Structure prediction request, 347 residues.
Amino acid sequence: MPRVWDIPVRDSTRVRDARVAAEHAALQAGLADLRTAAAALVATELATNLLKHAEGGQVLIDVVDPPLPESGGPMVQIAALDHGRGMADVRAALRDGYSTARSLGAGLGTCRRIADDFGLYSMPGRGTVALARVGTRAKEVATAAAVRVGGVNVPFAGAEYSGDAWARAGSGDRLTLMLADGLGHGPDAARASTAATRALHGSAHLPPAEVLVHLDSALRGTRGAAVAVAQVDTRAGVLRFAGLGNIGARLREGGTWRSLLSRPGIVGVHRHATLREDRMPWAPDRLLILHSDGLPSRWTPPSDPDLLAADPAVVAAVTLRDASSSARPVRDDTAVAVLAPAPSEVP
Prediction:
């Protein structure tokens, strides 16, 4: 079971915790020493920035799939979220040497340079999300993929393991995104969702309803999980969706959002004999957000064009941050995963 690190950064002692977590995640991802050091530097700098510029925030560290299919192995993802004053000039903040407060001197520009992927989204008065992925730095694989994926995962109450998991798998012209929420939380829930992610890679050639049937067999003997599967056929320009249980799904079409509905059931425990599968056009203006029930049932989808065109994991992190409220404490693991057009496909 892959571990997830959720580190509240309220004082300088937690900066070290972020660095150590990045090193452990790099070991889990199988990164070499130089890339491990890069992940540690990025985590340290992002955690330090939370204290210097936002009076604290949250660092999430996870091992994730790359956003594009066939583009390398596992990556360490480091996300820093805050509700601080935000940045008036994001481009300036990414320039080397730019600083509004004393820091390590590495800067966001250096983080962007040493990471394989880097995204930054900020609005004055609403806070900032900075997200980096560090992988093997292998030679880039040419890909004609028209879609990309990304997500964030937060274990309940700072636990080591999240019962939620998301994964992507490619097969020919199809890219499949799955989000699973193991029943309850803790290690047993994590075993169920981990079983779902492993089984996905053997069924990515199937349409979503048949993927759920395959996962149902794979999850027998576990607690079971709520699962949603979204699949884009890039050649046909079609999005297919099927789900069992309480995974939320919101699809953006042009300037409007609509919900995609799952059927009642638990994969691995109880499923319908027949499964509903929705089919709809996929176009460059589409964007799909999947989330577990750790996210409040009422939340506002993003509308800022700059955010909608950002890295899918940044979209997921901002969605998670903005849906959080101290008045409505989270009572379960929370995962958000996003399926979006590749950069060249965004209008």
In short: Residues 142 and 334 are 33 Å apart (CA to CA). Residues 33-54 form the longest helix (22 residues).
